[in-house]
Amino acid sequence: MAARTPEELEMLLEDAFVMRDTDALSRLFVEGAVFVQGDVSARGRHQVARLLASMWEAGPSHVAGEGRILQARDLALAVGKDGISVMRQEGDRRWRYAIVTKGGGSGPAPGAWRSEGTGEGG
């Protein structure tokens, strides 16, 4: 499962979430990805997948939302009423999420917004 476009990445996220496929979820994120929903956050593709999996029990049946995608070369920004996502096209030409924020809660977890270099390759 790999996305050839930012739009396809959004659909694959929805599919993996609905199918409850943690392996597929983790493959949709760069190695140093950040996911923030309200006051909960995760860093790293596997932690993000675990956080999304924990949301299955909470009840939402989807994570993707309607919005607009703006693309400049190998970067894309998805802006919707429920959140903002930054996507990156990697060396294998596939698109993956680097940063995802979703609404809800009282705000991001402490330190979730601090700027950190991820080094070469994410």
Task: Please explain how this structure is put together.
The protein has 3 helices and 6 strands; from the N terminus they run H-H-E-E-H-E-E-E-E. 28% of the residues lie in helices and 33% in strands. Residues 105-122 have low confidence and may be disordered. A hairpin with a 2-residue loop joins strand 3 and strand 4. With 122 residues, it is of the alpha+beta class.
**Inertia-based shape:** globular
Low-confidence runs of at least 5 consecutive residues: 105-122
The amount of beta strand, in percent, is: 25-35%
Helix content: 25-40%
- Mind summarizing the main beta sheet? 6 strands, mixed
**SSE pattern:** HHEEHEEEE
| First-last Cα distance | 20 Å
Mean pLDDT: 83
Topology:
Elements: H1 6-19, H2 22-27, E1 29-37, E2 40-43, H3 45-58, E3 67-72, E4 75-80, E5 83-89, E6 95-102
Parallel strand pairs: 1-6
Antiparallel strand pairs: 1-2, 3-4, 4-5, 5-6
Could you give a short description of this structure?
The protein has helices at 6-19, 22-27, 45-58, and strands at residues 29-37, 40-43, 67-72, 75-80, 83-89, 95-102. It has 122 residues and is α+β, with helices and mostly antiparallel strands. The chain starts with 5 loop residues before the first helix and ends in a 20-residue tail after the last strand.
Describe the structure using short key phrases.
single chain, 122 residues, alpha+beta, six-stranded mixed sheet, 28% helix, globular, disordered C terminus
